[in-house]
Amino acid sequence: MRLRPILLRTILLLTLAVAGAHFKGAAAFAQEPQAPAAAQEAPLTDTPLDQAAKEIEKAKVQLTALQDGAKQNADNDDALVGLATKADELSRAVITISVNLRPRFDQIKNRLAEIGDPPKDGQPPEAKIVTDERNALTAERAQINAVTGDAENLSIAVTKLLNEIIEMRRRLFADTLFRRTEISVSVLDDAVSAFVHEASEFSQALSSWASFVWKFKRFPLFAAIFLSLASALILLSGSYRLFGSYLRRDEAIENPSYIGRLSIAFWSTLIRTLALSVLLVTSFFFLNSFNVLRPDIAPVIGALFAAIGLVYFVGRFVNAIFAPDEPRWRLVRLSNLGARSIGYCLLAMAIVNALDYLFGTIGEAMGSPLVLTVVRSLIAALIIGLILIAASFGKPMLAKNGDPDAPGRHWPRGMGIILRVVGAGLILTALTGYVGLARFVATQLIITGAVVATMYVGLLSGKVISKQESFGDTFFASFLTRRFKLGPVAIDQAGLLVGLAIYAVALLVGIPLILLLWGFHVQDLQLIAYRLFTEVRLGGISISLLGICTGILLFAGVYLLTRWLQRWLDGNVMARSHVDLGVRNSVKTGIGYLGVGIAAIIGVSAAGIDLSSFALVASALSVGIGFGLQNIVSNFVSGLILLVERPFKVGDHVVSGTAEGIVKRISVRATEIETFRKQSIIVPNSELINGLVGNWTHRNKIGRSEIPVSVSYNADPQKVMDILLELTAKIPLVMRNPEPHVEFLRFGPYSLDFELRFFLADMGDGMTVRNNLRIEILQRFKAEGIEIPLPQSDLTIHREAPPVLVDAGRDRKGDQENPGDKPMEEEERPVRQLRSRTADGNLKS
């Protein structure tokens, strides 16, 4: 029977051998004519070092192209912005090359340290394989150093190019602002002629485009308008559902609160402007995507949408802040006439700026001469300057009696002068030829001022809402209270979060708008945001805000997972297994600290913080920290010992120094002991490790309890002992093994002293059992006529000698008839002789 498996295996092996030989021969036969082709196969895959060298060469070519592009586009700000973005991407790619080579360089360095230096003269030679490995590693290290050096030089060159581009853009911006143009009558005549010619060309272009769209692009036009309207309506309807009470003023409110006025002013301006912006942006996007706009018409439509958005934003801002028709909702102390006049002035300046921008875009699209742009900006600057001067002579301030319909007062001291100086400065700047500077200042006065004022209102709203007990009066707080059943404290904390959210909205919307108005491009903002969230350098330390946020989220996730694991183990595993409470506490504490440690490691690693950067500081402070934190470290180590060794656990009855009570909590620094008077005592763990600690419930809760009993000399001792044992036997909590017993301790000075001793399964029941037994003993002794004696003392007082305390056990008659005493005369007899019997043994006279 055993031969059959052996024969089968032998036949199988022979079959495989024959098949292998057949396939080997066939493969050799098939490959033999193709030997020349096999010799021409492609080389092996490049190593990471070769790939890094090729990427460096490619980056050098890209850098050369960027340098040439910067020279050719020195006068084009948009092109310089694109080149700066590409240069920044190239810089990060070069840095990535060096970072990718660092692990291999560290491996080579560690391996060379393990191999050691080559043998010196006179030392035995080393193995050839070791020498070859050292030489290969040394050559590879040299190559890595060369590639890394090229990468560093290339990174320096890219950084230099970025600085040059920034300097070009700064110079271009300054030249544009401070470029001077001669203003004369001939210039004005040329501008009028150019304007007539531009208007004629633009009218023809617009009519031809409109007829073309109506004939061939009618459906895409309606589709674009429908999609853009749908997007805006969705945003506006959602905003009304969420912030409906903050978008419109309630006419039924006679005296609205300051927080209500601020909230409506901020949210109505922000949300409605955003809704219109979405409508305009999506309209332009869909019109351009559906090929409805021609290249010469697209910039004009974009400028028209921007002008509409600017005028609408300023109008919403004026209505929100000044409330010309609703003085009770006004945020500034202006009269009705003053609010209307200032609002009209601001709106007029916004319209002038918007028209100037629109006409400038039309001129660029039509190829108008520069003189027309200069004169157009000159007219806009003169109009805005005149509006500011006219507004400075007004009386917009609220009257002293507080009546908004009454005639107002002049501007506060200095405000009118500032308006006149700014208006006159704009006019003089424009008339002297610095039209670009005047136009820029006029634009910033309107748009930047409105944005800054809106941001300020938003910050004020956040500040007011964040104040204690202010958020509870809002509609949103009432909704949270009804929906989530939140209490006053939770609502107050929610108000703090809402205030911080309003801060974030105001800053995140306002700051980018201001930067865009002051000459920054969208690419600049994207680059700033990318660097801010990915790499912030503080000296030699690189910090990534995105990495820090990721690390915080990972830390919070692992921490919450640890808490869940603690609760699951305690409630589902250890509770079902009837594990001791102290063991459960030790396991929960250990898992908690382990989870926090793992979460901290994961969070720090995800944040990308290189702890080696702090090695020098840590080494310098290690000695001082060691001395300063030695007690903390001692308590920490002692806490770990207590958790592992468990000389006592949660729920034990311990005695340590002056502290006695139940252990409530054991942490790595201190242990909480609750006394029987419900006082919590925090004991450092090092004291519990180094000192004496008594544990009444170390291995179990069994303990002996005693009740001392004293009876008079007239009582029968055996009867007393029988009664005590009989009463003890009736208590269910008293253990039968070991059995209770009574000790006849002594013959006292005025009583027979006994002690009832019994064991309890739980020491915590001792107080109740002893109280009940004492009551039963007292009642039984009264029924049996057994007397519990009181302490007795004799007190004798003499006039010439201090009182002598005579023990109760001495013979009083013998004391009086002591032959050694001196006979007393009649006037020297004792004044008083007292016998005092008290329950506590104290003497009373």
TrEMBL record:
Q: Which residues form the signal peptide?
A: 1-30
- Where does the protein end up? Cell membrane
| Stretches assigned to coiled coil | none
Q: Where are the transmembrane segments?
A: 221-243, 264-287, 299-322, 342-362, 374-394, 415-435, 441-460, 494-518, 538-561, 591-609, 615-644
Q: How does the record classify its membrane topology?
A: Multi-pass membrane protein
Q: Where is the composition biased (Basic and acidic residues)?
A: 808-823
Q: Does the keyword Transmembrane helix apply?
A: yes
Which portions of the sequence form the region Disordered? 799-845
- Which residue ranges does the record assign to the Mechanosensitive ion channel MscS domain? 631-698
Q: Which UniProt keywords apply?
A: Cell membrane, Membrane, Signal, Transmembrane, Transmembrane helix
Query: Any idea where the Mechanosensitive ion channel MscS C-terminal domain is?
Result: 706-788
Report the PANTHER family cross-referenced here.
MECHANOSENSITIVE CHANNEL MSCK, POTASSIUM CHANNEL RELATED
Q: Which family does it belong to?
A: Belongs to the MscS (TC 1.A.23) family.
Q: What is this protein called?
A: Mechanosensitive ion channel protein
Q: Which organism is it from?
A: Rhizobium anhuiense
From which lineage does this chain's organism come?
Bacteria, Pseudomonadati, Pseudomonadota, Alphaproteobacteria, Hyphomicrobiales
